[in-house]
Design a protein that fits this description.
Blueprint lengths: L13 H16 L14 H14 L3 H15 L2
Amino acid sequence: MVLKAGKPTTLQTQKERAIAAVQEVDNETSPKVKLQRFNVDIPESLHSAIKIQAIKEGIKLNTLAIKVFEEYLKNQS
């Protein structure tokens, strides 16, 4: 067996590879939804806290934001 040095992959851990695999399956099985870009300026500290939470949940920042907005709107009814 020959080991070669190379660039590390962006997915380093087994957990990250597993999360990516599940997300790929979800993307393949869910119906395509037209997305609209939404830009918002937020304090850096809030952005950091949101990013950390997304990492803890093993989801993308975008997915977490959608989840938060959906929950907020659901509670407004």
